[in-house]
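A quick aside before the break. I want you to see a complete sequence-to-structure record at least once, exactly as it would be stored in a machine-readable document. Don't worry about memorizing anything.
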Amino acid sequence: MPHSTGQDISDLLASVIRIDVDRTEGTNNYAVPKDNPFLTTPRARPEVWAFGFRNPFRMSFARVTGDLWVGDVGFEQWEMIYRVVRGGNYGWAITEGPNTRVR
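That is the input. The structure line, written in tokens, reads:
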């Protein structure tokens, strides 16, 4: 299924990743922060912070709270804006906004 990547944390597509560009690790030009949510999950990419996005197109941190907000492209009916949390699953390709019958 072409949209299954949204629920696959072994794939960086459809994810918000979190890396440390001030350090290197192994052959990477970056390091993975030790508190990333999938760091020790088997077959997961440790860079993944949150997943289940269709195509996030805009991100911003709230100045007062530091919360990360992401605008994500919808499928047919809905555009989404999410407050992204550590390890969050934002549903693509299973749901679109309140529509749970996307597939």
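Two observations worth writing down. The chain has a mean pLDDT of 89. The longest strand covers residues 56-61. We'll return to this after the break.
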